[in-house]
Structure formats: structure tokens, C-alpha cells
Amino acid sequence: MARIIGTLSTSHIPAIGNAIAKKQQNEPYWKPFFEAWPPVREWLAHERPDVIVFFYNDHGLNFFLDKMPTFAIGACAEYVSEDEGWGIPTIPSIKGNPKLSWHIINGVVEDGFDPVMCQEMAVDHAITNPMLLMYPDAHWPAAIVPIAINSIQHPLPGPKRCYGLGRAVGKAIESYPEDLKVLLVGSGGLSHQLDGARAGFINKAFDAECLEAMVSGVEPLLKYSSLDVVEKAGAQGVELMCWIAARAAMQGDVTEVARTYHIPISNTASAVQLLSHTRTAIAKAA
Amino acid sequence: MAQTRTIEGTTIFEGGQATKGYQLNKMCFSFNDPENRKAFLADQAAYMDKYKLTADQRAALASGSVLKMIEAGGNAYYLAKLAGILGLGVQDIGAQQTGMSVEAFKQKLLDAGRQ
User: Fold this and answer.
1) How do the domains of chain B map onto residue ranges?
2) What radius of gyration do chain A's Cα atoms show?
3) Of residues A12, A59, A103, A192, which has the active-site annotation?
């Protein structure tokens, strides 16, 4: 059976990709963020996930407002990194696992979610930056399944809905008959706002609340609406939904392996948090 | 559904904004393609004609004001692609929208980390 081995949540700020390209990892501005990664890589080298299921948000690369899905799941053999328009380098394509993708799609539809199903999908910095941070040599040892959550066009799915999606995805993964080790990634956040007179808004107290909830269970965050999250985490801080979904997919006992929180990177409060899954609950629930 | 509450200094990109900004955002979305970025820089007026930008959108672009572009329906994720063409980073844009110098805006972010 497939097994969820952990949840990695990380900021994906575009500037990270540029800093990697310019080899600025050891500069004082960047060091506090990049220092988060050696322990994560050590854990990855030990655990060796076969598939990474990414909860992320597309930033106007694959989806436009002509057809904007609330949730979309990739079922591609390969995911291509493409030009986003403002200079972040592209990375080698990443292999998919269509069989697992379709299994997840079947599971979530059964559980009342209606994702757009994609057989071609370009992926942006929300996937490429975490991949490069996990595997700096850009030789990808794991396939990916991307699950996009709309963070552009309101009404956005709120914490409760994204939690439900995460639960359904986790349940589907743990009912997959093949022996696969699956890592969940929640990509984005934490608090930040790029647009409007409140640009540069950061909320350290709310971020701390979220990081704690990621460890003990994100249920206390479900009382917030998507607009509450805009207010508390900033207009782009709604990427928190990706963290909530990724955490919701992993039920049972968890151990916090690593946590880094640093202000600022660019306009953002950056965070990296790795939770390892010590006991599975979903499959045993029945 | 209309925006259900006011959040200081924040425009919620709901249906009304999305309808108003469609042409502007569609033009910005086209900038994922380097050929389109070149075409825009070569003849901005012609490029805006091609995407049928409204008078308000053209005026907002001419003014260079990001707040006006947002008022004309622009969405941050798509406007970022236009900013890239104009050589502006998120901190330049943040400074402009908050009426601060870029240095002061960067300092504000650093200070947020020290609080």
C-alpha cells in the first residue's frame, strides 16, 4: 500500500529561484532561509519519497481567468517548467505518476470534490522552487502529482473546503495498492501582500498560530473564512490553504522534524516546516 | 458575489473586478511568451489595441500607477508580468503603492522581522 511519509510546507517566493540561479545562498540576506534546507535534504535522503503530491497555487502560468478552476489535479506523464514572464529560470521537466493521479481523482470525486482534470500542465515557481530546494542538483528522484488550489479569483475555497480536499486526497493515497512512499508538500505563504496600499503587510502572530496548528492539527484554523485569511495573512497569504490541505491529508501522529521562520524574503514572511508521519490513521479509521 | 467586507488597503479580486479587468489581465497573461513581451515593447499602443484595453486601463498604464491599474481591474498575479517587462520588482511596486521610497519599504520589511 502507498504510505504518506510526511508533510513539507515551504514558501516559494520567486526571488528564491533567482537567488539559487545567482548562487546567493550564503549571503546574509538569504542565509537564514537556505539554512533551513540541509536537515530537510538529509531527511529526504533517508526517507526517499517515490512521489510528491504538491498542493500549490498557479500564478497565471497554466490557468487564466477564462477558465479558472477552484481545484485542479494533474494526471500528466510529465510536467513542464515554463517561462513565467519575469525572468525566473526554468528547470528540467518533472515526471508524473498518472496512475496515482487518476486514483486520487477518482477518490476525491467519490468524496464530493470536483477537480478539473489536466493532462497537460505547465508548472510555475510554486513547484519549481520547492523542487530545487529539495533536490539542488535538479535530478528528480521522485515523480509529482500537482493539485492546484485557486488563490487568484474570489470567491476562493476557504480553510474548511481545502481541509476537506486534503482529507479526501490523503484517504485516496492511503488506499492506493502499490507500495509507494508519498511526501505531501504545501507550497506558499506565509503572510504577505504584494498589491494595494497594504503592500508589505506581514502578520507574525498569525503565522506563529499557523505553524503551531500545523504540528498539533490544523482544525483550529477552520473557523476562518477565506476573507478572514486575506485579512490576517495578506492578499497572497491565502496560499496558507495549500498548507492546510497538505496537513489535512496526513492524519495520525506526526513529529516536527524542522521549522524555520524568517522575515523577510522579498515582501514575504518565509517559512519551512517538515513534519514526519509517525502513525497512519486514515486507513485504519474504519 | 460582491466583496462582503472592507479590508484596509486591499482590493478583493472578486467577480466585479475580474469582469472589469479582463482585457488588461488577458494582455498581461500573454506576457508569458517572450515574443509577446517583445511585441509590447516595440509598440505598446498597438499591443493594447489588440487586447482591446479600456480607456481607464490605458490611462492607468500611462500613469505608471499600480494602484490605478488595480482600480482598473488589474490582478496582482498578472500585473507582475507587466512589472517584469518594465524592470520593476515587488519591492519597487510595494514602495510605489505605499508612497514610500524603496529603501524605506525594504526597511519596513526588515523591521517587521525584528518586532
Assistant:
1) 15-88
2) 17
3) A192
CATH assignment of B15-88, given 1.10.700.10, 3.40.640.10, 2.40.128.110, 1.10.10.60? 1.10.700.10
Integer CA distances (angstroms), B49 to A261, B43, B73, in order: 46, 10, 17
Question: Mind listing the domains of chain A with CATH numbers?
Answer: 3-271 (3.40.830.10)
* Position A14 confidence tier, pLDDT thresholds 50, 70, 90: very high
CA A61 to chain centre: 17
Grid look-up 473586478 returns B17
Secondary structure element (H or E) that encloses residue A50, with its range: none
* β-bridge pairing A3-10 and A181-187: parallel
Q: Which of A197, A201, A227 sits opposite B4 (nearest CB)?
A: A227
pLDDT digits (tens, 9 = 90+) for A82-131: 999 988 899 999 999 999 999 999 999 999 999 999 999 999 999 999 99
| pLDDT, tens digit (0-9, with 9 covering 90-100), for A205-229 | 999 999 999 999 999 999 999 999 9
- CA–chain centroid gap for A10, Å, is 7
**Contact (CB<8Å) A85/B91:** no
Q: Cell numbers for A240, please give them.
A: 496558507
Put simply, whether A199 touches B (Cβ < 8 Å) is yes
Q: Is the dihedral of CA A254, A256, A257, A260 positive or negative?
A: positive
The cell for A17 is 529561484
